[in-house]
Amino acid sequence: MVTLECWPALKPWLVCFGRLEMHLPDFVPDGTVMTALHMSRKKKKFSISEFERGADERLPRNLGKWCYSLSLSLSPPRSLQISLATPVPPESVEKRGLIRRPKNRKAVNVEAFEGGVEQNLLQIKAQNHMAESQATSIIGMTMGTSDTEIVLSNTELFAQPQLGEQSQAGFSAPEQKLLKGKNPVQGRKASNAAIEAGVLSDVDAKEGMTERLQKKDLAQDPEHTDQMATESRGRAVSLSSEQREHTRGSSYAEQLPGADELVAGIKYRRSQRELSWGLLCKLLLLLSKNVVKSPTSARTRRLSRHSTAMAALYPEQSGRKLMKEAVEREAELDGVAVIGEVGDSEEEEMTEEEAETEEPESEELSMKTPAFIRTKAYRPSPLLSTPRSLKTAASRFSPKPPLAQQAAKRTVMAPRRKREPALPSSLVKKIFSHYAKVPVARDAFKVVEKCVEVYFRQLSNDLEAYTMHARRKTVQEADLELLMRRQGLVTDKMPLHVLIERHLPLEYRKLLIPVAMSGNKVIPHK
Amino acid sequence: AARRLSGGFERSRGWRGRERAVGPAREFTAPPAVAGRMKRAAPRSTLRTLIKRHKPQLCLAAYADLLVHLNFLLFLHRLAEEARANAFESKSKTIKSEHTMAAAKVILKKSRG
């Protein structure tokens, strides 16, 4: 199977689908080769193999595989059919692609595929990150942040080379190798931050890049997506900010400083061009990435809801607050470098605000939001056209502090939900209206409900008095009868059984009234 | 008494001889054979929970909650009668909250035991 490289010059080849058509592009190096092809056009298989062999001989391998691909492209249109397929990275192109030799193919697959995949990923990520970096001018940052990353980010929970590649691709090529297996989380953060920033910032060129990143990240990091996918697909920056606040784990501490610095650096760079949203996103994403593995998906879900709600409802305010939170978090974690970086010229405003705001404020915000926002959050969240990657990235944020807040709230809510048991109002209404025989106003029912509550209180008191008097702990039917007698319901003229028969359904009557059956049987058995 | 016996006979014939178990009675649905309007089943568990909440040291006997339900029905009955009388006195075709309020005062005092 010949795969055509995405070669602009090959376009004329792609146009002609006819097998017999042989349009030779102008850049054909060797006319002899083409003539040979012409000669052996009918037997394409053989011609291809022959051509390949000839090409191998002639074309120096040092020129690169793209040259070879070019030569391959010159092969008969048979390759055209294949060329329509997705282009294969140069590394993965096999020398013997045209020749069907399963042996060689497998050998190459084993070795070259992995390398090709990695390289491909690197290239793609590099492209993405380069696009980002160009916009954000991270160049100046890479030098400082990379070092810090390398130094600080030692413990990586996720030894995923993809992530490491991601993070480093954007920063520097040499660093990529170093950080490959080190900072997958940070890398994700960067990409996620970029993604989120791009998504959130409406009018920014980066958005396109971030979106691209998102898609690519998604495609490239299925693992993370899986992890995050389980969690709710938070969307907003607030999520990440909250998460950052809540990042506490010692395991993350090391990663966080590096991420914080990175975030700060990114923030600094981007602040010049970006809206506050983008900065927030990046910061949050970077930090949140450290906390990717949230202990419970539920927490992240809630947090994501929180953040989305906050973001949706308080776009600007939350952004600022998120920034503040982010800065606070950074301060907490690092306490030095981040804030210093953050407090740059453009971000002075933000830092000031951040310094002023305290965690309780953000907590309050999150506290305020829960009830009504949670209910609303679901609606705006689906409305937001957030790509899946963004959602996954957002879901990755595992905010611990908001989790605690939410947990506290939930515990408070839990007992409230249980409430006291109350008789079903419908039952009360039905019985009362049945006995009243005339229409009853709705307000009257409320009064009746209150009466019923008072009645039950009185009833329990009386029953307790009677049972205690009898030195018992269980309320018996005799106690009830005594109560009814004292109430005036049961008199000498009106025995209890009559009342039972009158007012209780048959099933209950059977249980309450002992009846003598044939054979000296009494039911219910006493 | 005679009525009860005849009723018992009828019941015995239609009875499948269910086993009677001491202790909290099993919840049973309203008999489907009852024609005409059938009141809803007594919320036995709710009643027990209510009393438990007020007096946790107290427990109810097997069928004592049914008698509690009976008492509750009779209470509502008296309340409704009193409210209806009040509404009738004020020449109103419907029972209003003020009628019920006045009735409640009287009946609650009566139901003190």
From TrEMBL, chain A:
It holds the Pfam family CENP-T_C. GO terms for molecular function: DNA binding; protein heterodimerization activity. Residues 213-226 have a biased composition (Basic and acidic residues). SUPFAM superfamilies: Histone-fold. Component of the CENPA-NAC (nucleosome-associated) complex, a complex that plays a central role in assembly of kinetochore proteins, mitotic progression and chromosome segregation. The CENPA-NAC complex recruits the CENPA-CAD (nucleosome distal) complex and may be involved in incorporation of newly synthesized CENPA into centromeres. Part of a nucleosome-associated complex that binds specifically to histone H3-containing nucleosomes at the centromere, as opposed to nucleosomes containing CENPA. Belongs to the CENP-T/CNN1 family. Residues 18-214 form the Centromere kinetochore component CENP-T N-terminal domain. GO terms for cellular component: kinetochore; nucleus. Gene3D superfamilies: Histone, subunit A. Keywords: Cell cycle, Cell division, Centromere, Chromosome, DNA-binding, Kinetochore, Mitosis, Nucleus. It comes from Chelydra serpentina (Snapping turtle). GO terms for biological process: cell division; chromosome segregation; kinetochore assembly; mitotic cell cycle. Component of the CENPA-CAD complex, composed of CENPI, CENPK, CENPL, CENPO, CENPP, CENPQ, CENPR and CENPS. The CENPA-CAD complex is probably recruited on centromeres by the CENPA-NAC complex, at least composed of CENPA, CENPC, CENPH, CENPM, CENPN, CENPT and CENPU. Identified in a centromeric complex containing histones H2A, H2B, H3 and H4, and at least CENPA, CENPB, CENPC, CENPT, CENPN, HJURP, SUPT16H, SSRP1 and RSF1. Interacts (via N-terminus) with the NDC80 complex. InterPro entries: CENP-T (IPR028255), CENP-T/H4_C (IPR035425), CENP-T_N (IPR032373), Histone-fold (IPR009072). It comes from the Eukaryota. It is found in: Chromosome, Centromere, Kinetochore; Nucleus. Residues 213-253, 343-366 are annotated as: Disordered. Residues 418-515 form the CENP-T/Histone H4 histone fold domain. This is Centromere protein T. Residues 343-364 have a biased composition (Acidic residues).
UniProtKB/TrEMBL annotation, chain B:
It comes from the Eukaryota. The keyword Nucleus applies. Signal peptide: none annotated. One of its GO terms (biological process) is mitotic cell cycle. Residues 10-21 have a biased composition (Basic and acidic residues). One of its GO terms (molecular function) is DNA binding. InterPro entries: CENP-W, CENP-W/WIP1, Histone-fold. Residues 1-22 are annotated as: Disordered. The keyword Nucleus applies. Keywords: Centromere, Chromosome, Kinetochore, Nucleus. Belongs to the CENP-W/WIP1 family. This is Centromere protein W. It comes from Chelydra serpentina (Snapping turtle).
